[in-house]
Amino acid sequence: MKLQRILPFAKHLLQAAVQEGDIVVDATIGNGHDTVFLAKLVGAKGHVFGFDIQEEAVKNTTIRLHSEQVEKHVTIHQKGHQHIKATIPTHLHGTVSGAIFNLGYLPGGDQTIVTIPETTISAIEQLLEIMKPEGIIVIVIYHGHQEGQVERDNLMDFVKTLDPRIAHVLHYQFLNKQNNPPFIVAIEKC
C-alpha cells in the first residue's frame, strides 16, 4: 500500500514540523509511545511536555521513557490537557513546534475514562496561542465508541470554523474501511 496508514502519517506530519531542540506537547500520553517518539525527535536539547489525567498513563509512560533512556528531556503532568498554557512556562510560549492528541480512552485501561470535546477544544485553542508559526497539531480521532462519536462531531464542527488566516486544517481518513477506523485532523498554525 502506497498510502500511509493513520499512525505513520501522524508521525510523518510531526517529523515535518519538529526539529532537534524544539519544544513539543503530547496532550494525551497514554502508554507513552508518542511521548518517546517526540522525545527522540527533539533530542537532548529539546523538551516534551506530556499530559494525562490517569495515574496509570503517567506510570506506563514513565516506565517507557526510562527504558528508552529519554526521560531527562520530558516533563509529565498528571493533569488534563486543558491546562497546557498555564503549565508550560511562559518563556516557552511562541516556541512550541508540534503537538499530538490520541483521543478516546487509554488502550488497555479503563474505557469509561475518555477525552471530552470541551477540554480537547480548549487545549487546541491554547496550543494555537503558544505555538510558533508552522507548528502542527496532530489529532488522532478514535470514534468507535459513543463518547468518541460525540467528541468527533464537536471537534469537526470546531475545526471547520477556524479562521484560515490563523490555521490550516487537514482531514486524513480512509473512507472505505469498516468499524469506525481512526482518522487524523491536523492543524498548522499560520
General description of the model:
With 190 residues, the chain is an alpha/beta fold. The chain has helices at 6-17, 33-42, 55-67, 84-87, 117-130, 146-160; strands at 23-26, 47-51, 74-77, 96-102, 131-141, 167-172, 183-189. A seven-stranded mixed sheet has the order 3-2-1-4-5-7-6, sandwiched between helices. Strand 2 (47-51), helix 3 (55-67) and strand 3 (74-77) form a beta-alpha-beta unit. It is globular. The chain starts with 5 loop residues before the first helix and ends with a strand.
Structure at a glance:
The protein is α/β, with parallel strands linked by helices. The protein is built from six helices and seven strands. The longest helix is centred in the C-terminal third of the chain and has 15 residues, at 146-160.
